[in-house]
Amino acid sequence: MVTSFEGAWADIRRRLIAGTVVNNWSADQGYTGGTFHINDVNEAAVIVWSNQMSRERAISKRDFERIFAVWPAYKVRTVRRGELAKLSQNTTYILSILHWREEYQSSAALTPMTPPASMHSRPDRVSVRRGGRHDEYGKQVLREATKGAVVEFGTPVEINYGTGQPACIDAIVGDIAVEIESRVSKQVRGAVLDLICHPHLKKLLVLLPVHMNNPEVTAEQCRNIMKRFCPDGTFRVIILKGSGNDPQLAEDTVIVAAALADLG
Fold this sequence. Notes:
264 residues; Trna Endonuclease, Chain: A, domain 1; 4-stranded mixed beta sheet
């Protein structure tokens, strides 16, 4: 794990994409139930926003550097939260992002291959995709439900259609292929093809009720499609309660964990 601040800052800028939902976290309480969104990341600052803020806020690189200097001591509680307030007025955001980074690294470490090209060859999943914020929330739920045991990049998530760059699903959990969708029903049904064609036998489709006119109908359509190609008992289609705009992490984590357990 990178220990220098400059290395950590470069890592944050590389991994923390716009649209990411970050859970509020502290060493004393763990996840505290609140969230905030990443609106932008640049050389000088991370730009954050939440429903409780009247406008977005820029968290400077300098503030991150001050907190990072005592981050190891804070995690083992030899430096208390009150002392950090003397270093920055943005400790909630900085501590949560530093914790998010370490959780992300733990998750990525499970991936056999994570070349940078794989991370940046998926414009449909990251920078261009309209549902990026919602899909990132879905991934966050997945990480919570699996304690971070998720593969999101590299060869395991790829589907080779015989020409051009491979297509990618969103994640692998053990021997289960996972796709997370928040788009309109027609696009969701198209994404089901990638899930069906992934070589893992077990499939989990996670829907976020955002752009679909009727998520229940879309879910049933997807089940009927998968029944035509997947053996009984090898797939599940679930609908989350929350989304990137309305996170309901506790409830949604239970829903995803139950579906994964059901698939075995």
